[in-house]
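I'll show one example:
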Amino acid sequence: MRYLTAGESHGPQLTTIIEGLPSLLPITAEKINHDLKRRQGGHGRGRRMQIETDTVEIVAGVRHGQTLGSPVALVVTNDDWKHWTKIMGAEPLAEDVNPEDIKRQISRPRPGHADLVGGMKYGHRDLRNVLERSSARETTVRVAVGSVAKALLNELGISIVAHVTEIVGIKADTSLLEGKSADEIRTIVEADPCYCVDPEASAKMVEAIDEAKNAGDSIGGVVEVIVEGMPAGVGSYVHYDRKLDSKLAAAMLSINAFKGVEFGIGFEMARRKGSEVHDEIIWSEEEGYTRATNRLGGLEGGMSTGMPIVVRGVMKPIPTLYKPLQSVDIETKEPFKASVERSDSCAVPAASVVAEHVIAWEIANAILEQFHSDQLPQLKAQIDEHRRYTKGF
C-alpha cells in the first residue's frame, strides 16, 4: 500500500489518496470521523480545535460501504478557509496588488520549527509558505488513513490502542495495563482528558498543562502504542529495509515534534544484563509459541514474535510559544521575538492518536507486503492459515 497527502494548514482542504487496499473491506465515514474527533481532543488543545470540526468525505474507491480495490480518496475540508481565501488563494495576485501588502506574512522564524531551514531550502522569503505545510494540521488526513488501516486490521483480528504514559515528567502507573485488552484500555483512555490509564497521574498532567498555558509555555511527553493479535513472522531479518521495527520507528519519528522512539523496555535495556532483557520462549498446545515476558516489545530480529507490539515515542514541547523565544528577522537581520501562530500548550494526548494511526498503517502495510491478496476474504484465509502454521511449527 501507499498514500500521499496534500494540503496546507489554512488551505481549502486536506486530501489523501490510498492505493493498494484489498477489495470488499468495510469502510464508513462515521468510523473515520470518530478517530478524527479524538485527534482534536485531549486537554491542552488550542483555539484551532474550536474553529475546525474535522469530518471526512470519501470521494473515490468505496461503494456502498466497501472498498472496490481501486484507489480510495479522502477529503477533509478546512472550515476556517473562508477567513484565508485572499491570503492562501491559489490564483496569481492581480497586477495592482503589492505582495508586501498581503496580511500575515512571516519573516521571523520560530526556534524549533521548520520555518527558517524550510525557507532556505525552497527559497521562500515569506515563511508562511513553509509553516502552512510543515504544520501538524497535516496529521489530520494521516489519522484518516490510519483509521482505514485499522478497519483492515480489525478484520484480521488485530487490535491497536495508544495512550499517554508521561507529560513533563509526570508518569502514569503502567502496571494498571496488566490483564487489560486493547479494547478495555481504549475504553479507559477515551474517557480521560489526557488519554491516560492512570487517573491520579492524569489529574496532575491537567494541572501541569494549565500551568504551562498560563505561563505562555508548552510541554511535551511520551505516548505508547500497543498492537495485539499480531501474527508471528511479519517483517524480515534479511535486509535492513524490511525490518518491521525499523519501519515502525520511522513512522513514529515522522510525526511532527517527535524526537525519540523505543520498543518494549527500550532504553532501560542499556541498564540491565542480558538475562534481564531477553524474553524466554515457551510453548503450549493452546497458544503455541509465546514469551514468558515481553521486554523486547513483540519484536525480534526485525520480525513480529506474536506477542503484543509495544512502541513508545517522545514528543518535544511545541515550538510556538505565547512567550516567544528570540529569533532573527530574515529581512532586517535584527533580533526579534519569534512569530506567534495559534497553538496548543500541550498536544501530547492528541499526538497519541496520531501515533496510533501511523503505527496502524505500517502494521497493515507490512501484512499486505507479506500476504498478497486483492480481496479481503482471501487475505483473511491466508492469515488464518499462517497462524495455524506458526502455532504448530
About this structure: Residues 165 and 172 are 5 Å apart (CA to CA). The longest helix spans residues 348-370. The chain has a mean pLDDT of 93.
